[in-house]
Amino acid sequence: MPRKNAKAASSESDGKEFFAAIAQIEKEKGIPSGYMMEKITQALASAYKRDHDGAGDNIEVRADPEKGDVRMYIKKDVVETVDNPAAEISLEEAREKLPHAQLGDVVRIEVKTKNFGRIAAQTARQVIIQGIREAERGMVYDEFNSKEHEILTGIVTRIDPRSGAASLRIGSGSEITEAFLAPGEQVRGEAIREGDRLKVYVVEVRRSTRGPQVLISRTHPGLVKRLFELEIPEIYDGTVEVKSIAREAGSRTKIAVWSADENVDPIGACVGPGGQRVGNIVEELHGEKVDIIKYSDDSAAYVAAALSPADVVSVDLFPDGKSCRVIVPDDQLSLAIGKEGQNARLAAKLTGFKIDIKPVSDPGELPEPEEDMVVMDEEEPAELPVDEE
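Given the sequence above, the corresponding structure tokens read:
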């Protein structure tokens, strides 16, 4: 009798340790105990099926956290002739366990988990471990999926000496993953070393068998937009709106801003006292030039502003609504076009217009004014296509 009590005490202790382990996993990894119990139930059923051919969905696992025990039962049909021992039981044998059993009844027989074979036990363990991994990956995916199109700070853990691709560890606490910064998403000329802390833009989060794939970038225009939101309260609270961004990473960015509040100067809000706000953004971008443009519903005025810092004499919008000719002073021509055409290229990308720049001394042939042509002093501006994030 004392042995039996000792055995019962040991079984109860094992059960309590089992549920304590489940609680510990929930606490440390944030995996719900209900999810873990589901996986463990599947593991025990899988282990039993592996050792017993013919067993199917007739396996039942019951866990009682209050009593601290887990029990497995196999449900069998009471039949005259047993064809499948894993799912059927003879009337004679059934009555040994349940005296009132009748043909056609379903009896439930407890299976002692200690009788599982070594292979079955390994199967159960693998299923449980896999369940934990899947839960962790799912939680990491959910965590980073909510951060799409946001800025995260990562630590460079490795740089591929051949391709120059960088691996970054991003996240905090238990939600940490490796992200891949491809060479094409790095700013040209920006030196990256192991151990560096980098702000990166989360372009997309994808599911994969190895966990979430977090696609990040240092060249995406969204990085600049988020930096402005972080640095400038008026953009964060919606008083000032970012209408469009055109960027050539590492060199220059043009950003168009606008405010519905007539008392708020959108450019002044972005520049900040003594240029401090935009200065902080430029510093984060490692010296990349940033032109802040005031957006206008007047397409001609918007195109003229986009060519800043060059002065513009006139802007003639063509009837197609997608192209225009800009006249600038002769001494402003190279400034309007920019080095290797960069200023004109970024202005075109910012506004959505094809821009033909001409000097005052040689304006070329301008199309005859038509009823649907928009000029700078016209009261009704053309509708402007605005780039969307």
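The radius of gyration is 35 Å. Try to locate this feature in the token string yourself.
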